[in-house]
Amino acid sequence: MNFLLILLNTFFVSFADKPVQATPALSPRAVEQRAKWNIATDGLDYPVHAAYLDSLRQHGATICHTSRWMNGATCSMTDEQAAAVAQLPFVTAVEATRLDRQGSTVSKRRSMPAEAMLTNHALDELPTDAQLALYNLQPLHELGYHGQGILITVCDGGFTNANTLGCFRQSQELGHFDFTDDITDMYGYTGVHGTMCLSVISAQTEQYTGAATAADYYLMRSEEAETESPKEMDNLVAALEKADSLGTNIFTVSLGYTMFDNDEWTLTYDALDGKTTRASRAAHIAARKGMLVCAAAGNDGDKMWERLSVPADADSILTVGAVDVQGVIGSFSSHGPSADNRVKPDVCAVGVNATVMDTNGEIVYRHGTSFATPLIAGLAATLWSALPDENAMKIRELIIRSADRYQNPDARQYGYGIPDAYAAYLGRTTTVNSTANAPATVKFMQGNALYIIRGGKIYDTMGRMVEH
Question: What is the pTM of this model?
Fold first, then answer.
């Protein structure tokens, strides 16, 4: 018996227009929040034309997912079918985004986070105290704010055991969505990275506390396990749109794209302007629609590339770099600025020896802007639960203005620096260089050590009170 091998590639098909009248693809929660923050519905909220999708199917295409923001669809089809689709009168472009056959024998897959050095902790402190204390989050926790009422979407490559681990309160997961073609369940073995990122926000045990343990969350998968292709960026667009339709307040993604298995698709620095790729444009649109997007800067600072990745170049989001618990930048944390010279990263959090939970429920330590990013998302959720009448852009502004380099940003590594959650809550920057005439909450350096003054008492970054 002879078998015919049919190569089905993936394409993004762009449409010329949308229906004149359509029902916005928004949930009641999303509609309510749009009204609360006076965000008008516009053409971006309308779904793509169903008749166009039907026509693509008639030409042999399989629809992977659609994009109302980009007005198009990701489709699987042969090259011959794609050529026929390109001739349809309502189609403006057909762009290949993943090939069945790859153009390079060198895998561009990102490596998993490296093992970090284990840290010893005193009996009276939690391993997570240091990374929360660096940006002064405990005062908000002590006031009873833990992200309650805030809806977070965590987007990654999967979430191994996140549906069974006891450190997560399963009632807070409101659902999960898979935008990939992977056959492995998103709670299966490919999702170690996503589970660790989720733990930084939501995990809670006697020995561990996340940054926003009362926030509800959705889990979404956009990263595909076997290949590295631009299709994954379109998967991310689909995830952002779904999160928007569900009324998500904060979207955190610890994925980034510059290099692909097909060398012809690899991005140049000029493309990191927030406008070139669909994923970065979608992140900006999400911000316009009332969502706070947090994206990892990337882990290429000590590599030849050095630069950011997509969607970290997007405008109006929080791009996050990685520091240690003393506030020193990690050598691997990717460099800015964006190609159009905006400060990037925007802020930094602990991503050097970050304390995370692994898929067996054990505390481990990892390097990566991947873990700094959900820490900032957790900070934002806790702050937003304390200031529920503020919109996403105001929360972003308060976080940036509270950061220790706000007055003199470093556009290459630190951005605006390390935020102060309590100072953001108070609506002012309180970082000073000495203890003289100190306000209620300050940070200061003595020698090589960072200290925090709160309520007239001095604490180290482990949260321990020190004598003075």
Answer: 0.89
